[in-house]
Each structure stands twice: as structure tokens, then as C-alpha cells.
Design brief:
Layout: H1 2-13, H2 18-50, H3 55-70, H4 73-84, H5 92-117, H6 121-129, H7 134-164, H8 176-187, H9 191-213
Helix pairs in contact: 2-5, 2-7, 2-8, 3-5, 4-5, 5-7, 6-7, 7-9, 8-9
Length: 226
């Protein structure tokens, strides 16, 4: 028991090592929430471009999305940090956030596109026939069905985005994984740091999925709540 207390003390209390985890948690939350929220808006924009009436716009958008999806995330971030923005005064965290946002937006655009195109065209035409405006049709016909279709994959993408932030330590950013590595290098004891970080990742993923599940409730889709 005394040895256990000592190991916990050395992992979190000694030299205020808990501050590494606190800083790492803040960076992980910033990168995850920021890239996912902004990436959702970007994904919606990409989705709109993919349905453009202009073939050149569709081809250019698909090519750009394909580039973002197929390039490994770490390689993409390294391109931004060391080459594209290497000579600028932007902080590494901002550049990485930008890269993760593009990556999330690319994935989410495919999710949104699949969900929107899965909506029954007959229902849309019938709504127009009944006199509903384009906005009303989207609000009451397209959007609820698209959300229902996309939500399970959308929630999974949040977890994927969270997981992808764990590589930013390679770019000298103090995220949760990097915090655990630093503490381990000082204590030569990886157990408690890794367990603590694993629990935090699981909790963030669970909480994010719980919040996103609210989108699936009828009262959030414009219908009457039960």
C-alpha cells in the first residue's frame, strides 16, 4: 500500500505533475471541440459544393476532400506546421487546429452528403407540391431524415477526431498523451499516467456522444416533444 501511494504521489503530486495533465486536458478539449464544431460547418460547406450544378466545382471539391482524407493526419499536420505555415508567427496550436479542422470537415462532408442524398426525393417533391418553400422543405423534410441517418456516424466521427488529437505531441504540443509521456519519462512508471489519461479520453468521448445524442431527439428536429 505504501508503495502504491508513493507511485501515485510521484505521478501526480511531486513537482506539481498534475499540472501537466491539466494543461494537456485543456489542449485536448480545445483541439477536439474546435476542430469538430468548425469542421462540421466546413463539412456542410463542402457538402453544398459537392452538390453544385457546376461540374468544375464538384470535381475540385471532391479532389480536395480526397486529398485531405487519404493523406495521413500526422503528415498533413507536419506539412502545415513545418512548410506551409513554417515561416509565419502563428502558434503551432492554431496551425494544428486548422489542420485538424480541415481533416474533420473532409470526413464530415462525406457523412452529410450521404445523409442528404439518402432522403426520399418523392417526399421532397410532394412537399413542394403542397406549397412548402425550399426552406420549409429542408427544415421539416430533409433535415430530420438527414440527421437521423447521419447521427450514428457523426457521433463516431467525434470520437475519431478526439483520437486524432493524440498525435499532436509529436509536434511539441502538450496534449493529454504528451503529458503522460513527460510524466512517465520522469517517474519511469507509465501505469498511473496512462490509466488516468485513458479514463479522461473515455469520459470525453462518452460526454461528447451524450451531447450529440440530443440532436436525435424529436424536439430538436422541429417536431413536438413528447
Amino acid at each position: 500500500m505504501e508503495e502504491l501511494k508513493l507511485r501515485i504521489y510521484l505521478s501526480f503530486i511531486f513537482e506539481n505533475r498534475w499540472e501537466f495533465f491539466l494543461e494537456g486536458l485543456g489542449i485536448t478539449l480545445l483541439l477536439t471541440a474546435g476542430s469538430f464544431v468548425i469542421g462540421s460547418l466546413l463539412g456542410a460547406a463542402f457538402c453544398a459544393l459537392k452538390t453544385s450544378r457546376h461540374g468544375a466545382v464538384r470535381k475540385a471539391t471532391n479532389a480536395f476532400i480526397s486529398f485531405l482524407v487519404q493523406l495521413p493526419t500526422l503528415v498533413l499536420l507536419m506539412l502545415f506546421v513545418y512548410i506551409i505555415f513554417g515561416e509565419t508567427s502563428l502558434s503551432v496550436t492554431i496551425v494544428v487546429l486548422f489542420g485538424l479542422t480541415l481533416k474533420a470537415g473532409a470526413y464530415l462532408s462525406d457523412i452529410f452528403y450521404t445523409a442528404v442524398t439518402a432522403v426520399n426525393s418523392g417526399e421532397v417533391e410532394a412537399a413542394h407540391t403542397l406549397g412548402l418553400s425550399r426552406v420549409q422543405v429542408f427544415r421539416y423534410i430533409t433535415l430530420p431524415q438527414a440527421i437521423s441517418t447521419a447521427l450514428p456516424v457523426y457521433k463516431n466521427q467525434f470520437v475519431i477526431t478526439l483520437q486524432e488529437t493524440s498525435i499532436v505531441g509529436y509536434l511539441a504540443i502538450m496534449d493529454l498523451t504528451r503529458a503522460s509521456e513527460i510524466v512517465t519519462s520522469r517517474t519511469y512508471d507509465a501505469l498511473f499516467g496512462l490509466i488516468f489519461v485513458s479514463v479522461l479520453y473515455l469520459f470525453i468521448g462518452y460526454l461528447g456522444n451524450l451531447l450529440l445524442s440530443l440532436l436525435g431527439r424529436e424536439k430538436h428536429l422541429g417536431g413536438d416533444s413528447e
